[in-house]
Design brief:
The complex is a heterodimer. Chain A is an all-alpha fold. Chain A is 72% helix and 0% strand. Chain A has 13 helices and no strands. Chain A has helices at residues 3-32, 48-61, 63-68, 70-90, 100-104, 106-129, 131-136, 139-160, 166-177, 188-203, 211-216, 219-222, 235-244. The relative contact order of chain A is 0.17. The model of chain A has no long low-confidence stretch (mean pLDDT 95). Chain B has helices at 35-40, 51-65, 67-75, 87-92, 99-114, 116-120, 122-125, 132-141, 150-154, 161-174, 180-191, 200-218, 240-243, 247-261, 284-301, 312-326, 342-351, 373-378, 387-399, 430-436, 438-451, 461-470, 484-491, and strands at 233-236, 265-266, 305-308, 340-341, 367-369, 455-458, 481-483. The termini of chain B are far apart. Classes of the chains: A mainly alpha, B mainly alpha.
Chain lengths: 245, 497
């Protein structure tokens, strides 16, 4: 067992713990915070089924962003869909035997890796080229893109430039899951890749990456437009009402 | 405070995103409320000594009360989708009038005090302490937002700057920083029952003189009943309808509709205001207190239906919030929606053939329709999503022959605010109002040039007041501005045919 194996095993556990715990804490916090008034951005669906569809369109097609700005939509959508494919492709390192659909998407996942980097580059370029977006960008906005680009570039490098031992890597990954540690291939690009991934997972719930769970809790998008039909009353508002009577 | 010079930007043939002018509007501030106005609402009379801690405490309280605030402050990724969507940005070029930058004024303080990353790495995530300079920015720029929600249409997470603005104003009120305009008006409603501070006797006088005008115009006894017990409908309408022009023509229009359809109705002096400025300052208690007058009136008068006149944010308050604030309305006639918009009522009568029109009466007009923001993006009419767009248009088409739409990105859910909503319809912000009207004025100019439009119909008291004041800066005639029920009133057939 090399020092690197121990280091990365512990790092990945810690990052996952930090990321998952933080995410659970954030989601619980969102779920417990009341939404006292009906504020869907209208026209909005009038039924729960309609809300599910609206949300589905937002999550898969980025409907609102499409209305707003085609460039941001193009780069943003390209990045997110590619990331989803790339993540799905990575499932082959964590499943034995590999699920059939994971095997099936392998080639697409590869193109997606390239598209992901292209999308990120486009998004980053906007932060320099468009005056309005340059104005609102903070260092963390840049660093987040750098981080994701670093992950993409180091990953693609291992595919196209300097392979690592995939068999050993998979053994390491499965070992992490089953708490039966196996040696991590000694490979600088892999070290970099894992380091950045651990960082990303760790900071997820403490950064603007909260936009992912946030969308599902956005009253502007997740409320049904039915205030006349159904009385909506938050707990604290109900208490206020009782106190008055 | 020196009054800012009021300048209207030149109208361009197509929308152009302005080049940033940092700080262009920083010095434009709404007059602050004095101690008397503040204290009447239970707010401190002036900026309290420990304002910093009080503000942070209040922000913490609001974060626990409003999921919208918490999620919206967390979720923004600075993607920039909203940056060119605000009419105040388009009209002023001030970057802090970009929705995301406006939100960031509050978000940076939230990050500093309520997030781990902002506590430890403030520079990295753009977190900042609440300094006096930041507070000054809050006061300037959270009063250059009309809470119109246009940005929320385009945000991939539905982040609504109106929610952020409301929270910021609530925090500022709590530490003694309110605006004269909004808070004085709220005080008047509590005291007298309407924004104008029109006492019951004066209101009754005004209404009888309008009845006389109606008699002169039509030869018929069209009534404007007030405080009549047992009437079927209680109409709650913005008090501007009682004597501002062109608002009053819509009031006459409502009266003619009730008259022609034979519906008994009444106004109430106790609830002589549909507007609810409590919403503008994000204060649930104030909003509820204002709305409670409506509940008290309908119980007192024994009306069976509740109808709301032409007013944008009032319709939001009524449609979206009344059931929550002052409901349930289970004692009212279940055959009608509660509350019902006057346009829904008129449209229903048209559908049933209960009222008829002589459309040629509006032939002097080429009409276009300005969707008011709170109706468009914060409420509904009828049974289907988007009814708030279709129903007013259907009414216009039923009462006028010539109707033209403005360009698609300026109507319906993408409509541009008039520039005067959300508590900034005040002379001290006239420069902001004129500049904020720019996108709408450009869209209007286009249909004036192409189709000879000479009447812009709308269903909002604030829009009407704002436009009559502002269109002259863009070389339009203020008589172009009017209500949908003004057109209805022109064309409706009355009495024996």
């Amino acid at each position: 067992m090399t020092t690197a194996t121990v280091f990365f095993a512990l790092l990945l556990y810690a990052a996952t713990l930090l990321g998952v715990a933080g995410l659970v804490w954030r989601i619980r916090d969102y779920a417990r915070t009341p939404a006292p008034l009906k504020i869907p951005t209208t026209p909005a669906p009038t039924t729960t089924g309609g809300v599910v569809l609206r949300m589905l369109r937002e999550v898969t097609l980025f409907e609102s962003l499409f209305k707003a700005n085609l460039w941001i939509w193009l780069f943003g959508w390209m990045f997110h869909v590619s990331l989803a494919l790339v993540l799905a492709r990575h499932l082959r390192y964590f499943t034995e035997p590999v699920w059939f659909w994971v095997a099936w998407i392998q080639p697409f996942g590869l193109y997606a890796g390239l598209a992901m980097v292209a999308g990120l580059a486009g998004l980053w370029a906007r932060r320099f080229l468009v005056e309005r977006i340059r104005y609102i960008s903070t260092p963390s906005d840049h660093l987040m893109l750098a981080l994701l680009l670093g992950i993409g570039a180091s990953g693609l490098s291992m595919k196209f430039l300097d392979h690592t031992d995939i068999i050993d890597l998979k053994a390491f990954a499965l070992g992490l899951i089953y708490f039966d540690w196996q040696p991590l291939p000694a490979h600088p690009l892999l070290y970099l890749h894992l380091l950045l991934v651990a960082l990303l997972i760790g900071i997820f719930p403490y950064s603007k990456l909260l936009h992912a769970p946030g969308l599902f809790f956005s009253p502007g998008r997740n409320q049904a437009d039915n205030p006349r039909e159904k009385r909506h009353l938050a707990d604290w508002a109900a208490k206020l009402e009782k106190a008055k009577v | 405070m020196a009054a800012a010079p009021i300048t209207a930007p030149p109208l361009k043939p197509y929308p152009v995103i302005p080049i940033l002018e940092v700080g262009a509007m920083a010095g434009t501030k709404s007059f602050p409320a004095n101690a008397q106005i503040q204290e009447a609402l239970g707010f401190p009379g002036e900026l309290v000594e420990d304002w910093h801690d009080k503000a942070i405490d209040k922000l913490g309280e609001l974060l626990g009360k409003y999921r919208s605030l918490k999620v919206y402050l967390d979720a923004c990724v600075h993607c920039g989708a909203c940056t060119d969507k605000c009419h105040y940005f388009l009209g002023t070029g001030d970057p802090k009038n970009m929705p995301v930058a406006r939100q960031d004024l509050l978000r940076k303080v939230y990050r500093r005090h309520f997030t781990w990353s902002g506590k430890w790495f403030p520079k990295l995530v753009g977190a900042e302490d609440l300094t006096k300079e930041v507070l000054d920015d809050w006061y300037s720029y959270f009063h250059q937002c009309s809470e119109c929600r246009r940005c929320s249409v385009f945000c991939p997470y539905g982040i609504d700057t109106a929610e952020i603005t409301m929270a910021a104003r609530e925090v500022m009120d709590t530490i003694g920083l309110g605006t004269k305009y909004t808070n004085e008006i709220i005080g008047k409603v509590h005291k007298v029952g309407n924004n104008l501070g029109l006492p019951p006797a004066a209101l009754q006088d005004t209404l009888s003189s309008i009845e006389e005008d109606l008699k002169e115009e039509t030869g018929q006894d069209i009534r404007l009943p007030v405080n009549e017990k047992g009437a079927e409908v209680l109409l709650v309408t913005p008090s501007a309808d009682f004597f501002a022009e062109p608002h009053v023509y819509s009031l006459m229009g409502y009266a003619k509709v009730f008259h022609a359809a034979g519906i008994s109705w009444t106004l109430s002096t106790h609830a002589s205001e549909a507007a609810n400025f409590g919403m503008f300052i994000g204060n649930y208690g104030q909003m509820q207190k204002i709305a409670t007058r409506v509940r008290e009136s309908i119980l007192d008068l024994g009306a069976r239906r509740l109808v709301v006149g032409e007013c944008g944010h009032a319709w939001r308050a009524a449609y979206s919030f009344w059931n929550t604030l002052i409901g349930p309305f289970d004692f009212l006639d279940p055959n009608y929606p509660v509350p019902q918009h006057i346009c829904e009522l008129t449209y229903d009568l048209i559908q049933r053939g209960a009222i008829a029109f002589d459309k040629s009466a509006n032939d002097k007009y080429v009409v276009t329709f300005h969707d008011s923001c709170n109706v468009a993006r914060a409420s509904r009419m009828g049974n289907l999503p988007g009814g708030q767009f279709e129903i007013p248009r259907a009414i216009i088409r039923a009462v006028a022959n010539k109707f033209v739409e403005m360009y698609p990105d300026s109507i319906r859910e993408k409509t541009f605010c008039c520039g005067g909503g959300g508590g900034i319809l005040t002379d001290d912000l006239m420069d902001v109002r004129v500049k904020g009207a720019l996108p709408r004025m450009e869209a209007l100019q286009a249909v004036v040039d192409s189709d000879g439009v000479n009447f812009m119909a709308m269903i909002c008291a604030i829009c009407k007041a704002q436009f009559t004041k502002v269109v002259p800066y863009y070389k339009f005639n203020m008589s172009m501005v009017g209500g949908v029920h003004q057109l209805v009133g022109n064309a409706i057939r009355l009495g024996p045919k």
